[in-house]
Amino acid sequence: MQLRMLLSVNAVLAILHGLGFILLPEVLLNLYQIPLAPGASLMGQLFGAELLVVAVICWKARDFSNPDVLAAVVLANLVADAVGTVIAVRATVNGIMGSTGWLAVAIYGLLAIAYLLVFMRKGYRSGAV
Predict the structure, then answer these.
(1) Which strand (E) or helix (H) includes residue 129?
(2) How far is CA 89 from CA 42, 107, 118, in A?
(3) Closest CA to 24 of 97, 90, 101, 32
(4) Are 33 and 98 in contact (CB under 8 A)?
(5) Residue 66: CB atoms within 10 Å
(6) Could you give the CA distance from residue 121 to residue 98 in angstroms, rounded to a whole number?
């Protein structure tokens, strides 16, 4: 997958989930079968706000030409999605999220793999672009 397409897909997923968590946190928390404990809606909304940050960065980065900036965006997304994968797996396996949690695992995992492939292919790992 080309980097521009990957960033576009990431931006769209982030804006859809971000707006969902901001506007309808209880609905999305229910979808992921997360108990609605006190503060869960607030945390969902704050998560949604951060997803909007990801969406804006990814959408704008599609047109970046500076290889150092692109390397930073790719690395940041790789790290965040890899960590998100681990957290989502643990939450799903431990019953914090229901079986729908595997959707979060798939989204984070596929994005992490895609960013890793871009990271390796573009030579970002060695600093040479």
Answers:
(1) none
(2) 22, 11, 23
(3) 32
(4) yes
(5) 9
(6) 36
CA distance 115 to 73: 10
Tell me the pLDDT of the chain (129 aa) as tens digits: 799 999 999 999 999 999 999 999 999 999 999 988 889 999 999 999 999 999 999 999 999 999 999 999 999 999 999 999 999 999 999 999 999 999 999 999 999 999 999 999 887 765 544
- Which tokens go with 72? 């930073």
- What single-letter DSSP state applies at residue 115? H
Which residue in this structure is represented by tokens 């404990």?
37
CA 4 – CA 65 distance, rounded (Å): 11
